[in-house]
Write a structure and sequence with these properties.
alpha/beta; Carbamate kinase; Aldehyde Dehydrogenase, Chain A, domain 1; 3 domains; 8-stranded mixed beta sheet; 26 strands; about 35% helix; about 15% strand; disordered N terminus
Length: about 750
């Protein structure tokens, strides 16, 4: 026998056996039955008198959307007291104003005092209006809602429990959204510490415990608790060191300090956590999130169901390794230690990694073979992506050579003085290179990217988070292990982190306090998605590689087919491969044009005709659907232009500012092309495939940037550095440089120290 208030009741075993909650956020999209608990702070206005109608309408819209997807939605709502308070205040003011007008005159209306309103009376006055509002809102989405008022005793009477359970199941079967609330008009005041005693029972003293009880009784998949805070913090929200807890595990509550309760409502965060853990033990997944923030409240419920990183997710499954937040902090700390090493020490790490790539060749290729076999068996990768996934002895040898180039060129990358100025006597200013901070590199099907990017990050003193595609999991794992082995020789093993948790890319792009720069390496769709998802973090890269080759009237016959073949056929999946071939109109129906077409046919390149090219032909290849297409395969578009000027205009209109080439023997025409094409790389009589960090002598690249800020083109060590200013003075103050001060500005340029060219 247990006690609630002064009434004894007998604990009855739950009707459902303990189920298994979802282990990861990504599984929440499979939730069928969902309870949404709306806290008082979410439903009520800031003045605690009346409802937040806009917020409530947004919540109803999200619940309706999920209901129409075939899910079974239930709402546990607060708000009756606040709505009733608004109505009763209005009635009291109206009544008082009439009496005051009759007896005291209008001048005393301003002195009227509103009496303290009893909560149960407010609930009685507000419950019907609250339900009427819900009904009106759900009707807009052709959804019916039904009201259920409960008290604690309803859960402790077996017959009432069965009736409640049957009612809810019948409403869900009829596609009706049940709206449940405690019957605040009749409930007694809450007893402190009277709830959450044991696994199989929870007393209903507030809507948090009601929602948890209902969720377990109804075998709910997911309980969403919305309040006025983002979730759980490791210290009271608002304090300087407070950090949002992404995933909360049973047993972690000892490490959490609870702050004060919200401005309204019965339960504080401690009550929410206890209720959430009780529901979790009953097999229901729980997320506590902010339902009041204007930027996210319009999609907070749907974001949670989609598995996005919103609020605090309660899970019984603790990952074996660190969280991505912990990895980011380790990369930050490791990067600072790395930047403080001597240049020779950083170079030594990279040389060691290059040696490991060749020494451990067999293990690397074996892991890569398993990745390839799995990808081929599942048939989930297109041929160009399979080619990118594949490693070979020659690739590993090239990687090792590139890494040694990076090591050799990194001797004075960090801390290099690029400007010296004497501001005044004994006041010298220096601008020096420093690492950007922590880089997040997201790459698809390219395990060779991992050692390249790692070496560049090491050379530039940056911390690094790597998120590779699951199709290359084994390859990435062994390459990361070798990278950490090389880093260990100088005690900075943690500077390069491989993200193996089930983090969505979109969630990683929101870690603006941990990540300073995002570099995507993959498909144009991946890059666009990251650019869209990144919140407050700059993204370096290009969304497309639509590269052009323009064949001028003065082009050399010997050079044309060689350059076109290399640009298109050497590696068609590369971002620097030819996609559109522009041919001067005067070359049509000439032997040179025939040679180009014959070569493309021999190489089995599928040709798409641009609109102008198609108009010249009686029987033309298939007309291109879009002149702005990156094929990534043995396909290309051919289009006709009337001049070099028109070629430049075409490139600006349809290109992606990546790499564009002119083939001509006319130097004047070539210089016009080189100066007027606004792309990251512009070549004369050379293949587009030279647009590469290794071929540029950078050793390797983290990617090719088409942006116009910071780095552009193949990005090597220099693109991963920024600068800071160092000012060395001797008791200098600005007031000494005023009109009547004793000092004058000199602003003299000083010679730079000699660079290490070894």
């Amino acid at each position: 026998i247990r006690w609630w208030s002064n009434i004894p009741f007998i604990t009855v075993p739950l009707s459902r056996a303990h189920g298994k909650s979802f282990a990861h956020r990504s599984e929440l999209k499979h939730a069928k039955r969902i309870v949404v608990k709306l806290g008082s702070a979410v439903v009520t206005r800031g003045d605690e008198c009346g409802l937040a109608l806009g917020r409530l309408a947004s919540i109803v819209e999200q619940v309706s959307m999920l209901q129409n997807q075939g899910r079974e939605m239930m709402i546990v709502t607060s708000g009756a007291v606040a709505f009733g308070k608004q109505r009763l205040r209005h009635e009291i003011l109206l009544s008082q104003s009439v009496r005051q007008a009759l007896h005291s005159g209008q001048s005393q209306l301003k002195d009227m005092a509103i009496p303290v309103l009893e909560a149960r009376a407010c609930a009685a006055a507000g419950q019907s209006g609250l339900m009427a509002l819900y009904e009106a809102m759900f009707t807009q989405y052709s959804i019916c809602a039904a009201q259920i008022l409960v008290t604690n005793l309803d859960f402790h009477d077996e017959q009432k429990r069965r009736n409640l359970n049957g009612t809810l199941h019948e409403l869900l079967r009829m596609n009706i959204v049940p709206i449940i609330n405690t019957n605040d008009a009749v409930v007694p005041p809450p007893e402190p510490n009277s709830d959450l005693q044991g696994v199989n029972v929870i007393s209903v003293k507030d809507n948090d415990s009601l929602a948890a009880r209902l969720a377990v009784e109804m075998k709910t998949d997911l309980l969403i608790v919305l309040s006025d805070v983002e979730g759980l913090f490791d210290s009271p929200p608002g304090s300087d060191d407070a950090k949002l807890i992404d995933i909360f595990y049973p047993g972690d509550q000892q490490s959490v300090t609870f702050g004060t309760k919200s401005r309204v409502g019965m339960g504080g965060m401690e009550a929410k956590v206890k209720a959430a853990l009780w529901a979790l033990q009953g097999g229901t997944s729980v997320v506590i999130a902010n339902g009041t923030h204007p930027k996210i409240s319009g999609h907070v419920i749907t974001d949670i169901v989609e598995g996005k990183k919103v609020g605090t997710f309660f899970s019984e499954v603790k990952p074996a390794g660190p969280t991505v937040e912990q990895q980011g902090e380790m990369a930050r700390a490791g990067g600072r230690t790395l930047a403080a090493l001597q240049p020779e020490q950083r170079a030594e790490i990279i040389y060691r990694l290059a040696d490991l790539l060749t020494d451990q060749r067999d293990e690397i290729l074996l892991a890569n073979k398993k990745d390839l076999e799995e990808a081929e068996n599942k048939g989930r990768l297109a041929l160009p992506l399979l080619k990118r996934l594949s490693l070979s002895t020659s690739k590993l040898n090239s990687l090792a050579i590139g890494l040694r180039q990076i090591a050799a060129s990194s001797q004075d990358s960090v801390g290099r003085v690029i400007r010296r100025t004497r501001i005044a006597k004994d006041l010298d200013l220096e601008q020096v290179t420093v690492p950007i901070g922590v880089l997040l590199v997201i790459f698809e099907s390219r395990p060779d990217c991992l050692p390249q990017v790692s070496a560049l990050a090491i050379a530039s003193g940056n911390g690094l988070l790597l998120k590779g595609g699951k199709e290359a999991a084994r390859s990435n794992q062994i390459l990361h292990h070798l990278t950490q082995e090389a880093l260990s020789i100088h005690g900075v093993k943690d500077v390069v982190q491989l993200v193996n948790t089930r983090e969505e890319v979109e969630d990683l792009c929101r870690l603006d306090k941990l990540i300073d720069l995002i570099i995507p390496r993959g498909s144009s769709q991946l890059v666009r998605n990251i650019q869209k998802a990144a919140k407050g973090i700059p993204v370096m890269g290009h969304s497309e590689g639509i590269c052009h080759v323009y064949v001028d009237t003065d082009a050399s016959v010997e050079k044309v087919t060689r350059i076109i073949r290399d640009s298109k056929c050497e590696y068609p999946a590369a971002c620097n491969a030819l996609e559109t071939l522009l041919i001067h109109r005067d070359l049509l129906r000439t032997p040179l044009f025939d040679q180009i077409i014959d070569m493309l046919r021999v190489e089995q390149v599928k040709i798409h005709a641009g609109p102008k090219f198609a108009s010249y032909l009686t029987f033309s290849p298939s007309e291109v659907k879009s002149l702005r297409t990156e094929y990534g395969d043995l396909e290309c578009c051919i289009e006709v232009v009337d001049s070099v000027q028109e070629a430049v205009e075409h490139i600006h209109k349809y290109g992606s500012s990546h790499t564009d080439v002119i083939i001509t023997e006319n130097e004047k025409t070539a210089e016009f092309f080189l100066q007027h094409v606004d792309s990251a790389c512009v070549f004369w009589n050379a293949s587009t495939r030279f647009s590469d960090g290794y071929r540029f002598g950078l050793g390797a690249e983290v990617g090719i940037s088409t942006s116009r800020i910071h780095a552009r083109g193949p990005v090597g060590i220099e693109g991963l550095l920024t600068t800071k200013w160092l000012l060395r003075g001797d008791n200098h103050v600005v007031s000494d440089f005023s009109e009547h001060g004793s000092m004058k500005y000199l602003h003299e340029s000083l010679p730079l120290p000699q660079r290490n060219t070894n």
